[in-house]
Structure formats: C-alpha cells, structure tokens
Amino acid sequence: MSTEKRIDFGAVYFRYSAPDRQDWENDYRKASEDGITHFRHWFPWAAIETAPGVFDWEPYDRLIALGNQYGIKTVIAEMTTIVPDWFFAGHQEARITNRFGQKRFNNMNDSSMAGGSQSMCMDHAAVREGTERFLKAMGEHYRGVEGIIGYDVWNECSLYSAEGRCYCEETEREFQEWLKQKYGTLENLHAVWCRHSYTDWSQIRLPRVTGPHPEFFDMIRFQNDQQERWFRWRIDVLRGADPTHKLIAHGNGKAHSDIAVCCGDDWRYAKHPDIFGYTLWYANNCTALMGGDMIRSAAGDREFWRAEAIGDATWEHRSDRTKPERKKDEMASADNIRLDAMMSLVTGASAFINPRYRGLNEGHLFQAYGWYAPNGDRTPRSEEIAKLAAWSNQEEVCELWQAGPVKGQVGLLLLEDAQALCYALYDNTDIYADCLKGCYQAFVDSGIQADIIRMQQIGAYDCIYVPYPAAVSDQDMETLKRWIREGGTLISEGCFGYFNDCGHAVEISQPNRGFEEVFGCRQTKVHLGPDANTELVIDSAHGTIRAGVYRQAYELTGGRAEGYYRNGETAAVSHAYGKGRTLIVGSMTGYGYQHHANEVSRRWFASLVRFAKKVPTASLPYNKDVTIRLWEHEEKRYAWILNFADMEQTVEVQFADPSGSPVLLRGEGLERLEDGGICVRIAKKDAAVVRI
Description:
With 692 residues, this protein is α/β, with parallel strands linked by helices. Helices cover 32% and strands 22% of the residues. The chain starts with 7 loop residues before the first strand and ends with a strand.
C-alpha cells in the first residue's frame, strides 16, 4: 500500500490448495488492472514445514515476486493452527481436550486443503516451541523483502465456539496459577466461589457446567486472558524475527455475542498489532455498519480494515432438508456488494478485502465467496469492485480519505460482565446481543450515530446508553456513578446492576450499591422470566414503545415518572444526580426494537439525544432505508447518506451547523436548500457523499 491515505481493495488469494500455479500470473495481471492493491496468502505450517526443519517457501516467493511485478502488495497470513501431521502425531498429549475429556482429531481445514487445524493447545510448551520455530523461520526468511505489508496473526482472533476452549491438564495448571494471582489464598477463593474444602490449588478444576456460579465467571475471564496472552506472544515472536514489516490481525467482529462464549473480544486484540481488521459474514448476525463501528471503537487510533467481506453465495450446510437461508445468496448480487463496501467505508475502514479472489474447489466451501469466477474470469461482482476502486482513487475524492468519522452523540456501553451473565443463565448470549443490536439499529434508523464502547472509553462521551445491564462489578458501578456526578447522562435498561460480576443477585434493595440515589427510584416489583415478557409494552410521552426480557417496576424516591406499564406501575424514571442526568427503563427496550421495530419506538430512541440536552448534528425525514454519517478533517466536513433500499431515493438533509458550499463526491442531483440543508439523489444500495 502507498503511504498516502487511500482506500485499498484486496482479497485472500493463495490458500495452498488453490488457485493453480498456471493461473497465478493471469490473475495478478487482471487484479492489478481492476484496482486490487493487495493479496493475503495463507501460510499453513503443515504445508511449509513438511518435515522437521524442512521448509518450502518457494510458492510464496513466486507469488511475492508476481506482486512486485504487478504492483500488488502481500500480506502473510500465519496459519500455525494448521499443524503438520508429523507434529500432531508426535504430541498427542497436547491435543485440545473438550469439557467431556475428549481430545480433538486433526480434521482437515475446509478453508485451506493443506492439513488439519484447530487441534493443538497453546498451553503446552511443545506446541509453543514448534509454533515459535515456524514463526521465526518465516520472519527470518521474509525480513526486509520488498512488497510485503506485514503478517496477519491468528486468523479471526477467536475460538469460534465454546467447543474451542481447552480443559486439558496443562490448561488447568494455568488456571490454577491464574487463580493464585487473583485470590492469593485458598481462603479468599473459598469465600467467593462458595466452595470450602480445597486444601491445595492443584485440586481446582475448570468448571464443565455453564451456570451463574463464580467459578464459571472466573473461567471465562481466564480463558480470555490466555487467548490474549498467546496472541500477544505470536506478535512478539514475529516482531523479533522481522522488525521490517507490520503486524496485522483481524477479529471475528462478534464482540456483541462472543466475548463470553469463545474469547472473541476485539478490544483486547486490537491494541497489539499495527493494523486491525474484522471478518463479517452471515454468522455475525449484525449489519456491516454495526460490525465496522465496533471495530473502529476497538481499534482506537489504529488503522483498521474490513479484512473479510463476502463476494458471492455459499452452499455450506444447505440441503433440501434445511430451511431456506436467503442471506447466503445476497452477496451474489453486485448491488449488495456495493452497499456492503459502502457500509464498511463509512465506518472508517481503510481497506475492503474479500476472503476469496476466486472460490476454492474442494471442501464444504467449494466455489463460494469469490468476486471472480472459479476459472478466474471477471464477473459483475468483480466489475463492481473495479468501479469502487476507480471511484475511490479519483483526484477529487482522495481528499475524503484524510477525514474520518466523527465521534457519536451516544455511546452504547458493552458490558462483558452482563454478557457473561446472559451466557451463564441461558447457555447463549442471544438476549444480550439482541438488546445491543436493537438499540444500535434504532439509532441508525433515526440517523443518529451511536458508538459501541467499553468502560475504559466512557470519559470521551457525555451520553451513554446501557443495554441489558443486569451484571455490573462494584468497580464499574463506582466508575459510572462518578461519571454521572461529573456531568454525564446515563440511560439504562432495566435491572441495572441486579447482579455483581460473580453472578450474585444483590440482596439489598434494587437499584443497589448507591444507584437508588442515582436513579431516584426504588424497585417495587420485578419479573425475571423472559418467556413471560416477550410482548411487553411501555406507555411513554411518545406513545407505546416495545420492550421485553425483564420487567422491573419502581416507586419514586426523588425522580420523575417517564413511562408506565399497562397496569399503571411506573416503568421509567428520570432524575438529576450531581451535574448529570439519568433515565432508567424497567425493561429492555433494545430487545423490543430488535424484535418489534416500529415508528413509535424509533421516535423514543431518537428523543434520548434531546434528553441528554444535545441537538442532532444532522437530521432527515424518517426513512428506514436511509441513514447519515458525518466525517471531518480540520475545517472540512463530509456527509455520507446511505440508501439501503432496492430503489433510488431522493433525500433532504438538515444540519445543525450548515456551512460552505456543498460539493458532490458521490451521488447525483445535489441541491442546496434555502435553510442550509441539501437535497441529493442516491442510487439503490449505494451512498451519496457530500462535502458540506
């Protein structure tokens, strides 16, 4: 990539089993003509170290040389999870062990027909030694080589499912040491865990049962710490072996659901490499807009990429006995690829990358995802990417990439303790994820940017919305209380801090730990059965809004009633606390919007900005198929207006602070309105971009 700010388009090209060598040069030439700027190649340990100490780098050397010939940079994807069969055979004791004591087999990797994967546990010294030897050999071989951007470390930074967690003896020893560091003495651990008869740390085992027990929450925290530890270790090994190239990584873009389940915490991983990114496909169960916003927040000041988009349909897990999954066909459409790219770019991603240049020909993922045809021919999908690449590099557009998204007017606080509680109670995080996705989408539908943030980021925001806040640690309670007292506006869904971070339902009156004073109300009644609350409604000043999951009713202790359940019980209360303000709603309005989105609920979410005494920075007539995002750089401001509809839209936009003469960078028919707003025409599934 060039040193100038620009948008790069790339793809994963060589996965060892495909494409064939005879096609390489033609593909490189065609990709270069179409504006592709970099390829990522998978470097499977199993295919390169074919015998102990015997390394075959030749195919990759050839590909890097082709890249230099055609102006396409290379990203090296280290695939140490695809272990050599000779290594697997020699270290059976190091196999990942599931909670039932069964050890994994070295099953073939469907995404790279080069060997088995995800079978070995990094907590074993032998696995680390073999991994380190391979990474060092790779770094030393490519140190200083021209045309390489850097190394992509630990593909997708996640265990993918709860079955990826290991319960072997070495992992349990690591857990015991982790607990020693946390608790110091067995007596301290006994007091928290509600176990009273350990006489030695070696007697402690990783819990095998999901449940709201202190030991289970500690297991989740330990597993997250371990995965971050070995991720950082890989990065350190590569930095030591090759300080001349960047360290890159991409997560799975599922922190809204996967932190507790399978260590998918993008905030943890994003702070270690030079560039971070994310995969987003059907299994994320969130929009490309939400995925990009999460990763931008996790990455902070770092550059981030849409590291894996989707370029075509997929046939995986589909038969005449499965329900139709239309979403798996959506990206066969060039229009949907264009919209997907626009949603990624508007969140601030500096690269849009596909997981296939063209599809594989073996495995369950055969001929899926590729922008180009299985034989390398161009398709309407690849032609759309070429058009996007050409647009992004137009001289009049290049100024845009110096700018970036403004800070959102609302911060949506992702609480890992609350997600873990949801997982412990229900054996999945669906309710938590639905609450977060629902409130996020309500703000999108209202044209309001809401950033997904973590506790360490709240100081940058003066208005925070907390979805499903059922579990909050003592430390976080105090941090939030202080933040409100100093002037913050906190809007919370029901049962705020009902549990602590060990799953203990606090027995004192609710809200607890000083938050009765903060919210100006006290619980009178609560129902914690989600099954009975799926159709819950709350009457507010804006009309009847939808809610769900839990039902908490209040009596006032200084606050003001802002909503009622149908039986007249108080369902929402506002209050002033210190220099700040609070609003608590006794149920989960994000969940209600996710499952029953309607115009009244949307208006209620939109009103929260004004409740925080803020003026929307931009507004447009309600249209569920249109939203707006603002960018800025120094004195220049830009408006992106996205059209999700399968038809052209003409949109009027008003700005709180209009200035300058608008200039159209993308879209058609720009008009400046007398009141300082603009009117612009947007093609279907596209975006208009205007310098305002």
